[in-house]
Amino acid sequence: PPTVTVRGVHFQYADRSPALTGVSFTARARAQTALVGPSGAGKTTLFGLLQRFYEPEQGEIRLDDVDIATLPRGEVRRRLAYVEQDATTLSGTVRQNLLYSAPEATDAEIEEVLHATRLTEFVAGLPQGLDTSVGSRGVTLSGGERQRLAIARALLRRPDVLLLDEATGQLDSRNEQALRATIASAAEQCTVLLIAHRLSTITEADQIVVLEQGQVRATGSHQSLVDSD
Ligand code: ADP
Ligand code: ADP
After folding, report:
1. Ligand 2 atom closest to Cα of residue 77
2. Of 26, 173, 178, 192, which is the most exposed, with the fewest CB atoms less than 10 Å away?
3. Measured from the CA of 214, which atom of ligand 1 is nearest?
4. Could you tell me which of 89, 91, 171 has the C-alpha nearest to residue 136?
5. Using CA positions, which residue lies closest to atom 12 of ligand 2?
6. Is 94:146 a contact under the CB 8 Å cutoff?
7. Tell me: the pLDDT tens digits for 148-189?
8. CA 178 – CA 171 distance, rounded (Å)
9. SS3 state at 177
């Protein structure tokens, strides 16, 4: 997977004060880089730039040595997979949800991704896996399980970079652990960039980038940031 380099990025929505001013940092391959900061800091805007929904006014975003502005948008969105905060699952089974995202996926690839996202038990022993649908039978996957299913769908397409906007909802400790393990598995194959809302994610990240009012206030490990306070 590539190193993601954000260098001197400026961005402003029309008629607004700048959303990002001179943002620079590097996200290493096979590592977790956590973006933290208050609402309005520019985290979502940065994710939009990473997917080329908008273009920086100044600065650049590179995958290794390649400026994403030189790549077709389709290729950028294939290489960088985005999992939104409240990703919706489709009605149907876990396996149907996975195959919808990656119709060509083999059974072995599905097994691998189910293992990585700690969802094996929802398919084991059942031909298609548990039904995820909300209906007369009620919700059969919890919020944490649905978020892992969304990550599984993204990973099945074998992206270079996983962009994860972590959900804010409460998770019980089992789901919290499963999410940690899922993100760690993703970081074995991808460059992981996440908008972190959970303390456990922040403490486990390899690097933290603190954004405030569109600027990088600090970067470093959790420990180095705690020590410098
Ligand atoms: P965060 O994700 O950290 O909460 P955002 O990237 O959503 O921050 O917002 C950064 C700044 O850009 C804020 O001042 C916000 O009001 C503004 N902003 C975000 N999206 C839009 C938009 N679509 N149009 C205009 N301003 C926006
Ligand atoms: P496309 O033109 O590629 O079909 P969409 O507008 O349908 O793009 O969005 C594709 C995905 O990207 C959706 O999951 C959507 O929630 C997400 N997305 C849209 N706008 C943004 C943004 N500004 N930042 C991050 N993700 C976004």
Report:
1. 3
2. 173
3. 10
4. 91
5. 82
6. no
7. 999 999 999 999 999 999 988 888 999 999 999 999 999 999
8. 10
9. helix
Centre of ligand 2 to C-alpha 164, Å, is: 13
Give the gyration radius of the chain's Cα atoms. 18
222: which 2 tokens? 């959790």
Angle in degrees, 0-180, between the axes of helices 94-101 and 143-156, rounded to the nearest 10: 30
What ipTM does the predicted assembly reach? Answer: 0.71
Token pair belonging to 112: 């691998």
Residues with CB under 6 A from ligand 2: 44, 47-48, 51, 53, 77, 82, 84
59 Cα–ligand 1 center, Å = 19
* Residue 103, burial from CB neighbour count under 10 angstroms (0-12, 13-18, 19+): exposed
Nearest CA to ligand 1 atom 16: 40
**Per-residue pLDDT tens for 39-88?**
999 999 999 999 999 999 999 999 999 999 999 999 999 999 999 988 77
Is the pLDDT at 227 greater than 90? The verdict is no
